[in-house]
Specification:
alpha/beta; Nucleotidyltransferase, domain 5; five-stranded mixed β-sheet; four-stranded mixed β-sheet; 14 helices; 20% strand
Length: 461
């Protein structure tokens, strides 16, 4: 598969090869070859919900048909994490379907994905079905209302890998917000997580005359207020995971009030929708990892995963290796504080390894605010990644707005990211730039907006 050098090269990453350019080049050349064949992908989740994606590949008799697998594998990888799936239909040439099946098997190169999606998220055996395009089931999507309840005395919280953001809210107005540093990923004792979360909530409760409801967001997959899997808790041994799986249920029991906790990406999108009073929003939180959430044009959410952290954005074969998934070029390595740390040496910034991630990021941001040229190049590089990344996401989402939040966007860095991304969209993707507006919330909302939006999740009976 031919990789395309971008028109705008990240200042600190000259080998960046955007996924969107490679994908669009591949499909264009397949069509122009006169020997393309249709490919229909189907992604089945729960309750028969299915997302379809239609594209083309080279006909098996074309000399470039050997490129088909690279294109389809990266496309499947993107869509299983954007939309979610425990069953994937590959409607097209049998050799492609068989290759994808082997790749996404227990012994294949994408064994992490099949095990994570199958066993941990959907609690089913992950499978790939090779079939004709006509045999892929019809699309079937669901949507649900989300939050926007502002009455009463509420606590909102957001759990990230470097801090807990917590807010006390009365009738939609925040009266107290605080960021509490913690390091959950390194912890192997479930009691640490339960204690830190409870202490943060008790602090917020102390600022309120009473607590009527609690809403929260957390990195990871949260279903019915139970943690299915989360990077925050990956230090917990599997035989002790049940002790954190129900931590939010314990919170609800302790406080005796309605509680709702969902993925932090969804709350990012909700925060954007509430702030802008608009819909069709993709929220992207650039924090310890990359979190994503989507509010559709009706103002609702779907059952899609929106796990942008595991979605490929760079097809460079030597792209950074994401430590958890074992894959290269995925969003977590480009839209997060990990990206800042990765680029810091090339920027001439030495960050001590014995600091917390929050303090490491603070060093780089202080350099930026002091006018350090290398530090600026870090945020310009992230903005370049984001420009091409948004064009890539726009191929899968019906976007009107993209809202970027998270600790990495604090200070002047957020505006640098925004300006750089906008310049790329206007130059290389004018159709996307015409319909999609990238926005930053104000500084206060940027840092604690998610915990405030999270407070609006529960309904007070």
């Amino acid at each position: 598969m031919k990789l395309i050098t971008p028109g705008h090269v990240p200042p600190l990453d000259p080998d960046f090869k955007p996924a969107v350019l490679a994908n669009r080049h591949f499909t264009r050349e397949a069509i122009e070859s006169g020997k393309s064949t249709p490919l229909v992908l189907g992604f089945e989740r729960v309750d028969g919900n299915i997302t379809r994606f239609e594209t083309v590949v080279f006909h098996k008799d074309h000399p470039r048909s050997g490129e088909n697998f690279d294109y389809v594998e990266r496309l499947v990888k993107s869509l299983i994490w954007l939309k979610g799936a425990w069953r994937v239909y590959v409607g097209g040439p049998a050799e492609i379907g068989e290759a994808i099946r082997k790749c996404y098997s227990a012994l294949g190169s994408r064994s992490f994905d099949q095990q994570f999606l199958g066993e941990l998220i959907y609690e089913k055996k992950f499978e790939v079905i090779s079939c004709s395009p006509e045999a892929v089931p019809p699309e079937n999507e669901s949507q649900f209302t989300l939050g926007r309840h502002l009455d009463g005395c509420r606590i909102g919280f957001d759990l990230g890998a470097s801090d807990i953001k917590v807010s006390s809210v009365i009738d939609g107005e925040p009266i107290f917000s605080q960021e509490i540093v913690w390091e959950p990923v390194k912890q192997t004792d479930p009691a640490y997580h339960r204690r830190e979360i409870m202490n943060a909530l008790k602090l917020a409760a102390s600022k309120l005359p009473r607590v009527d409801a609690i809403g929260g967001s957390s990195a990871g997959i949260i279903i019915n207020n139970r943690v299915q899997v989360a990077s925050l808790f990956r230090g917990i041994p599997r035989d002790k995971f049940d002790q954190v799986k129900n931590v939010f249920i314990e919170v609800r029991s302790t406080f005796g009030v309605p509680l709702e906790v969902i993925n932090d990406g969804e709350v990012t999108a909700l925060a954007g929708s509430m702030s802008l009073e608009e819909n069709g929003i993709l929220g992207i939180a650039l924090g310890s990892s990359e979190a994503g959430g989507f509010v559709n044009s009706q103002g609702n959410i779907t059952d899609w995963l929106n796990e942008l952290a595991f979605t490929p954005v760079d097809f460079n074969p030597q792209a950074p290796l994401e430590e958890w998934s074992g894959d290269r070029g995925v969003g977590a390595s480009y839209f997060s504080q990990q990206c800042v740390f990765r680029l810091a040496p090339a920027a001439g910034i030495d960050i001590p390894s014995d600091l917390t991630n929050a303090d490491k990021l603070k060093i780089a941001q202080e350099k930026l605010e002091a006018g350090h040229t290398g530090a600026r190049k870090i945020w310009e590089s992230i903005g370049t990644y984001l420009g091409y990344g948004i064009a890539h996401y726009a191929d899968f989402y019906d976007l009107q707005h993209v809202l970027i939040l998270g600790r990495v966007t604090s200070g002047s860095g957020g505006q640098i990211i925004l300006d750089t991304a906008n310049a790329i969209l206007k130059d290389e993707f004018p159709a996307v730039a015409e319909r999609v507006k990238i926005q930053l919330p104000d500084e206060k909302s940027r840092r604690v907006g998610q915990s405030i939006a999270a407070a609006s999740l529960p309904v007070i009976a």
